[in-house]
Specification:
The protein is an all-alpha fold. 73% of the residues lie in helices and 0% in strands. The protein folds into three domains: 160 residues; 174 residues, Growth Hormone, Chain: A; 92 residues, Winged helix-like DNA-binding domain superfamily/Winged helix DNA-binding domain (Arc Repressor Mutant, subunit A). It comes from Neomoorella glycerini.
Length: 507
């Protein structure tokens, strides 16, 4: 039986070897993603965990794809996108009414209105209405056009909120948001490049992002449970620092970007402007592995301020200075968007829906005001002077201490206690041992987990507590290492309960 192409091995041996490779691959997946001892996992449980993993990947892909469809349509057309500058879409008043109604839609959600449209077929119906009403606003006279655009802006808030709530329930929301935001910007550039080639048929160029918008709404799963209504008298906790950050960063960054972009090469940044923005998202996600979330706020303000100093110090440099300034502004806005959305998703996951609605409404309102003033004759010309760039940089640097001090309050013991209250059962067990002098390997041995799983739980604990080290975590918890030494190891034979907990956490 040696005539099968492999010397010294029978067909039965080859079949057995391939089966061993498949079993080993399956056990590696179980050990990597679930932290279980693959040698003690029954075959049926392995298959169940793999099925859960594939389902999780499928849901995450649907969530990212829906974000691509929603955000690319808003960025390229509805929200002062590149397509809005092409005829017959060059009617700024319709864009202003869309932005105002879009902000009102978020504000209504923050006040507890319209939350029934966030689940089921509500987002799809709202997206279909927005996709029909907003293009129709450019085909009718101005008074009904304003009504159509306002109705489209109000309806388009529901799919965005449904996507945000679905994303807030994910543990790996950082990577999912980065993939969504970067992919939506890339699609926006591709849509605009196609529109330039189809300049004789602008409606055909608009049909592609509109179809993607509706398809993205179809993929929305919405929040996993009903959105609980907060009491009428409950304050929007944590909204103050985020609103201060929005008021400090977005007006300055947006004004100067709209002012410098024509001088730096409008066509280049409309086609390749996603490069610095996507780079900021990827770099910010990497920095969050070592730094707290509030550090991104300081980094975005610093990058924006330094970007404005170039045109201020070198007003006669011309195109290179303005191109560098626009790239730096996009880099800073990328850090700002990452901080803002991750902060709001954290608030939404904790049940603070008012903060999500109010802050999104404020962000859209600020960008709408910037888009309105950018069309005022002579307004943008005033920002091209060197003293205007110096004034913008000085304003950012002056607002940096109060913004960071307010955002740094999230790392206090009072704020950390709220974050630690949202820990899962497995994270609480890791936390109890983390407050001692045990290493990651010793914690893994105590809980019968892999070191990578322990590191994953530690990153989640630091993120929820707003800490960046074990010392800060001990101070935030108000516990002494000697008092927190206790043996929480699970019995070696208590595998079924541990597997059930791990499966429940991942789902």
């Amino acid at each position: 039986m040696e005539g099968w192409g492999c010397t010294g091995k029978t067909r039965l041996e080859l079949v057995w070897q391939s089966r061993e490779k498949a079993v080993r691959r399956r056990k590696n997946i179980v050990e990597k993603y679930y932290g279980l001892d693959s040698l003690n996992v029954p075959t049926e449980l392995e298959q169940m965990l793999l099925h859960m993993l594939f389902r999780k990947v499928q849901e995450e892909f649907a969530l990212v794809a829906s974000g691509w469809g929603l955000w690319s349509w808003l960025l390229v057309f509805s929200f002062y996108g590149p397509l809005s500058g092409l005829p017959p879409f060059d009617r700024p008043c319709l864009l202003h009414s869309f932005a105002a109604a879009h902000a009102l839609g978020f504000l209504g959600y923050g006040l507890g209105r319209g939350r029934g449209f966030l689940s089921g077929r509500g987002p799809l119906l709202c997206a279909a209405a927005a996709a029909l009403l907003f293009p129709a606003a450019f085909l009718v006279p101005l008074p009904p056009g304003l009504f159509f655009s306002a109705a489209a802006g109000l309806a388009s808030a529901s799919p965005v909120l449904s996507w945000a709530l679905a994303l807030s329930g994910r543990k790996d929301r950082v990577s999912l948001f980065v993939l969504t935001a970067a992919g939506a910007n890339v699609l926006c550039q591709l849509y605009f490049a196609g529109a330039l080639r189809l300049s004789s048929s602008p409606w055909a160029a608009l049909s592609v992002p509109t179809a993607g918008y509706v398809v993205g709404s179809c993929l929305l799963g919405g929040p996993r449970g009903p959105v609980e209504r907060e009491p009428c008298g409950s304050p929007a906790r944590g909204a103050g620092p985020i609103l201060l950050f929005i008021a400090a960063v977005y007006p300055v960054g947006s004004f100067f970007y709209r002012t410098f972009m024509p001088l730096a090469g409008r066509h280049f940044f409309e086609c390749f402007g996603f490069l610095p923005y996507a780079s900021a998202l990827a770099l910010g996600a990497l920095l969050l592995r070592r730094l707290p979330l509030a550090a991104l706020a300081g980094l975005s303000i610093s990058v924006l301020g330094l970007s404005l100093l170039g045109p201020g110090f070198f007003p006669g440099a011309g195109h290179p200075a303005f191109a560098a300034a626009c790239s730096g502004i996009l880099l800073g806005l990328g850090f700002a968007d990452l901080f803002l959305w991750l902060s709001l998703l954290e608030k939404a996951s904790a049940g603070h829906h008012r903060v999500l609605g109010l802050c999104l409404s404020a962000n859209v309102a600020v960008l709408g005001v910037v888009g309105t003033l950018a069309n005022v004759a002579g307004f943008t010309a005033a920002f091209r002077a060197p003293h205007a760039a110096f004034a913008g940089a000085a304003l950012l640097f002056a607002l940096t201490p109060p913004v960071l001090s307010r955002l740094g309050a999230a790392g206090t013991p009072e704020a950390a206690s709220g974050g630690l209250a949202r820990l899962t059962r497995a994270e609480r067990k890791v936390l109890d041992l983390l407050l001692t002098d045990l290493s990651y390997q010793e914690i893994a041995n105590r809980l019968s987990l892999s070191p990578n799983t322990v590191k994953y739980h530690v990153r989640n604990i630091y993120r929820k507590a707003g800490c960046s080290s074990r010392q800060e975590l001990c101070a935030a918890c108000g516990r002494v290492d000697a008092e927190s030494k206790q043996d929480n190891a699970l019995p070696p034979d208590d595998f079924s309960r541990r597997a059930g907990e791990r499966a429940g956490i991942e789902t």
